[in-house]
Amino acid sequence: MANVGPSFGLSREVQSKIDKKYDSELEERLVEWIVVQCGPGVGRPEPAKTGFQNWLKNGCVLGELINSLYPTNKPIKSIKTSSMVFKQMEQIAMFLKAAENYGVTKTDIFQTVDLFEGKDMAAVQRTLMALGNLAVTKSDGCYKGDPNWFHRKAQENRRDFSEEQLTEGKNVIGLQMGTNRGASQAGMTGYGRPRQIINNP
Fold it and tell me: How many helices (H) and strands (E) does the chain have?
């Protein structure tokens, strides 16, 4: 862990809210997937958030994970275990860049300090979930594990209509524009005449 003192006041409240977003059940699912995807060589973390953070924080497991999703041309050429802080942070940054190139949106990507200093481990979980969702959706044969662990992303379903079909469509009045079926003027009075209310005894 980095040498950061304890939080007080508002900072402590904010950090407490962030910590509550961490999902232990999701952690188990992500660990299972990473081990199946990368092989038993990556080991397993100790249970709980701190164990999960320490397992990922040197960037080696993350590097192996993103490389395993590519059949050829691995994005991270060299993965080396290092005790130097800047090397570990550099490897995390390389994983984040590779994840973005793989298709994970910027809003789903955590910041390096979120993992390295344990600032927001829920954000780390979100990034790994987004990566898993993409891997399942791509169906390129690189994903390993149970497909039910992740949600398949919506795919484009393009439709091509002929000119004839498009012309026919112009003749149809959509119901959201209203309809004049059943319209009648029954019971309407002539213009300029008031409605007659007569009480017949």
Answer: 8, 0
